[in-house]
Structures are given as structure tokens and as C-alpha cells.
Design goal:
GO cellular component, one term: sarcomere
Number of strands: 2
Subcellular location: Cytoplasm, Cytoskeleton; Cytoplasm, Myofibril, Sarcomere
Shape: globular
Structural class: mainly alpha
Number of helices: 13
Order of helices and strands: HHHHHHHEEHHHHHH
CATH topology of the largest domain: Actin-binding Protein, T-fimbrin, domain 1
GO molecular function: actin binding
Radius of gyration: 22 Å
Protein name: Calponin-homology (CH) domain-containing protein
InterPro entries: CH_dom, CH_dom_sf, Parvin
CATH superfamily of the largest domain: Calponin-like domain
CATH architecture of the largest domain: Orthogonal Bundle
Largest sheet: 2 strands, antiparallel
Strand content: 5-15%
Length: 300
């Protein structure tokens, strides 16, 4: 349960308003107006319309029903489809936005879900960063109830990277200079392969070969001159959580090497967001290009 004063947090109030405006913009053609995130989204009906609009598909779910069982069945179908689109693991989604938590009108669960959708579909919005709510956790220990206050992060300082926040050179490349973008990709590809080939590894596709974090970890080791023990990461990651762990670990190695903290989110890399991947690789390139004799990348 949310600590009552957390609901008065101006950033939380702003986040809810921004998400409501986004949903209503997306569903304007359906003449649907969402006024309350908790009361209007819990049964899956609006969520179904939203994901159908975002993906331009038809999700086969039962019609509107007033029974709790029917609502949960519909909600499960919708959430399963959303989880598939987002590429998240069952464990992750169960922790963040389970059927029971969304149906019980859990504000934190619903916000986690909407923020994930907004990130994935690059919603043209600017979400407030570092939105944190305090949760009240009550546990029974030794026949007595004990209360803990736990902070829950809803957004980070990465969440407006692709929204109406500050744009960078990669936004311009993607929007207006596809030819120059291809030159950048080719230059970065040459750079990473120069080092990965020392391990008889080769990247042929920047779009998806970095998404599990393994090549990022190996690249940092090669550039910094160390071997990363295999027990520190998942060499053959098979789940979304394994890949997120690897990318987070790679980001830590980058910061340890003196690079700026990546603007991209680990989940964006795992979801094969090319713009985020290029930002990370360019960050690496700018640090090592002069010391390793590489040509400049024409990003500007």
C-alpha cells in the first residue's frame, strides 16, 4: 500500500497527468476519455484499446463483463499480449504488474505498466524523472506486526530521452539524415570489430547483436585490458532478466572506466532499441577513438 503522503508528491501527480493525456490522445478516435488511472484501467478494457491502437492489431479478448472472474480473464489476455510485445519475462511482469495487482487498482502496478508502454513505444511525452513513492509493508514477525517503509522507483532520469525532452544528435540523424546515420553505423561497426576479432568474434548487425550485453562486457574488457570472469555475467543469457543483468553490468564497467553514465536504460538495449544502442556505442567510441587510432564519427 502507498504511504498516504506519497500521493501528494508533485512529481507523481505530474506523471499521472502526463500519462492520462497520452492515453487520451491515443484513444481520441474512439471517443474514450480516461479520467482516473486506477478506476478506468483495472478491468483491461481501456488497456486493450490502447495496445490495439499502439500496435495496430486486434487483441482477441472477451467482451466487457461485470464479473470479477471475467474481468481477470480478459485482463490476463491483454497483459499477456503486452508482455509479449514488451519482451519481458513472466517473473518481471508478475513483480511489476500482475493480473491481481492491476485488477485490485494498485496505482504503482498500473504506473509501472504505463511507463513501460510509454518507453517502448517512444510516446511523445516528457515524463518527470526520478518519481519515487513510499510503500508501507506490514509483516508478521514473531506474532507481532512490523511496519517497513520501502521506496519504489517509478521513473528514472532516463525516461524522457526519447520524449519531448532534450534532443541530441542521434535524434536528428534518425529523423533527417538516414545516409549519415548509415555512415555512423558503419564506423561504429568497424570500431567494435577491431577489438572483438581478437577473440574471433564479429558483429554484423548493430541493431540486435548487443541486446544481451555479452559483447558490451567483452568489448569493455578488451578496451581496458582485462578479462571479465565468466561467473560475473550470463555468457548465454536465455531470459529477459539475464540480459538486463548483463547490460547493467556492462554499464557498471563503463562507469568504472570513467565513461559518463549511459543515458540509455538497460531495458532499452535489451529491447533492441537501435537509437539507445548507438548512443551507448558512441559513448564508448568517443573515449577510446583517439587512443586506439580510429577515425571520428560524423554525428554532428
Amino acid at each position: 500500500m502507498i504511504e498516504p503522503t506519497s500521493r501528494d508528491n508533485p512529481k507523481l501527480i505530474e506523471l499521472i497527468k502526463v500519462l492520462l493525456d497520452w492515453i487520451n490522445d491515443e484513444l481520441a478516435d474512439h471517443r474514450i476519455i480516461v479520467k482516473d488511472i486506477e478506476e478506468d484501467l483495472f478491468d483491461g478494457q481501456i488497456l486493450q484499446k490502447l495496445i490495439e491502437k499502439l500496435c495496430n492489431v486486434r487483441v482477441e479478448a472477451r467482451e466487457v463483463t461485470q464479473s470479477e472472474i471475467g474481468q481477470k480473464q480478459k485482463l490476463r489476455v491483454v497483459l499477456d499480449y503486452i508482455n509479449h510485445i514488451l519482451g519481458v519475462s513472466p517473473v518481471w511482469s508478475q513483480q511489476k504488474w500482475s493480473v491481481d495487482s492491476v485488477h485490485s487498482k494498485n496505482l504503482v502496478a498500473i504506473l509501472h505498466l504505463l511507463v513501460a508502454l510509454a518507453r517502448h513505444f517512444h510516446a511523445p511525452i516528457r515524463m518527470p524523472d526520478n518519481v519515487v513513492v513510499t510503500l508501507i509493508v506490514i509483516q508478521k514477525i514473531d506474532n507481532s506486526l512490523q511496519t517497513r517503509y520501502v521506496p519504489e522507483e517509478i521513473t528514472t532520469n532516463w525516461d524522457d530521452v526519447d520524449g519531448r525532452g532534450e534532443r541530441d544528435a542521434f535524434d536528428t540523424l534518425f529523423d533527417h539524415a538516414p545516409d549519415k546515420l548509415n555512415v555512423v553505423k558503419k564506423t561504429l561497426l568497424t570500431f567494435v570489430n577491431k577489438y572483438l576479432m581478437k577473440l574471433n568474434l564479429e558483429i554484423t548487425d548493430l541493431d540486435n547483436q548487443f541486446h544481451d550485453g555479452v559483447f558490451l562486457i567483452m568489448l569493455m574488457g578488451l578496451l581496458e585490458g582485462y578479462f571479465t570472469p565468466l561467473y560475473q555475467f550470463h555468457v548465454t543469457p536465455t531470459t529477459f532478466d539475464h540480459r538486463v543483468h548483463n547490460v547493467k553490468f556492462a554499464f557498471e564497467l563503463m562507469e568504472d572506466a570513467g565513461l559518463m553514465k549511459p543515458k540509455a536504460r538497460p531495458e532499452d538495449i535489451v529491447n533492441q532499441d537501435l537509437k539507445s544502442t548507438l548512443r551507448v556505442l558512441y559513448n564508448i567510441f568517443t573515449k577510446y577513438k583517439s587512443s586506439h587510432g580510429s577515425q571520428a564519427v560524423p554525428v554532428q
